[in-house]
Amino acid sequence: MATLHERQHYREAIMKNLYEAIEGNRLLGLTGTRLREDLAMPEEDLAAACTYLAAEGLIQVDWARGNTPAMLTLTHKGIQLMEAEEKDSD
Fold it and tell me: What is the pTM of this model?
């Protein structure tokens, strides 16, 4: 099981990776497989992070068998959060 620091890092990495991939178009998304490979994240940690982010209303997840994220997209709330972070870093 991942530590608290690792779990926070995984969630941030998922949000950043999704945001960069969609370029503001919330109709686009990433497959769970691609995201896991891009982030070199264990499958169970990806599922846990996606569950958390979905419960917060930041992403939408289409689940495959075995509690595996099949497709992930940012919600409107998730895009707003990432845009606010991008603006703050400017």
Answer: 0.90
